[in-house]
Amino acid sequence: MPRLTAFISGMVQKTGYRANVVILANAFGLHLIDVQSIENEYTASTGEFTGFEKMVTGGETDQRLDKAADLLKDLIVVSKEIVVELKATHEDIKGVRDEVKGAREDIRGVHEAVQNVCQAVNNR
Fold first, then answer.
1. How far apart are CA 32 and CA 27, in angstroms?
2. Rounded CA separation 61/47 (Å)
3. Ranges assigned E (strand) in 60-113
4. Interatomic CA distance for residues 124 and 122, integer angstroms
5. Is a pLDDT exceeding 80 seen at residue 109?
6. pTM exceeding 0.70
């Protein structure tokens, strides 16, 4: 498989760009996040920081939220499939109910016929 290195620039923040790139990359079987180098600079500590945390800008989605969005999309697809199946099952049940209703009417007709025959026999 050929290798492509792409440098993307422009308005990509707060547009769902990264989530869509991941979806497309997975669809094409691409592998992402291949860090080539990290530059380090060591200086004397100033004591101004008390801990370490991931910083994000306002409105930026976190990786876990991107994953949750993908899972939610899958859940929506499955839910829609379930609704389609439920509708088909409901239609099947309505068909069976109509058949039972027809059979019940047939049984009533036979019952009335038997009653008429019994009455005719009794009247003889």
1. 12
2. 30
3. none
4. 5
5. yes
6. no
In the three-class reduction of DSSP (H, G, I as helix; E, B as strand; rest coil), residue 13 is classed as: coil
- Report yes or no: 22 and 69 within 8 Å, Cβ to Cβ: no
Residue 13 buriedness (CB in 10 A; 0-12 / 13-18 / 19+):
exposed
What single-letter amino acid sits at 52? Answer: F
Query: Once rounded to an integer, what is the mean pLDDT over residues 76-88?
Result: 94
Residue 7 within any structural domain of the chain: no
Q: Is 34 left (phi over 0), alpha (psi -120 to 50) or beta?
A: beta
pLDDT value at residue 79? 94
Q: Does residue 78 form part of some domain? A: yes
Of 27, 25, 24, 19, nearest to 70 (Cα)?
19
Structural domain span for residue 72 = 17-34+50-123
State whether residue 68 is helix, strand or coil.
Answer: helix
Separation between Cα atoms, residue 33 and residue 112, nearest integer Å? 80
HSE-CB for 5 with a 13 A CA cutoff:
3
Q: Which structure tokens are listed for 32?
A: 């992402």
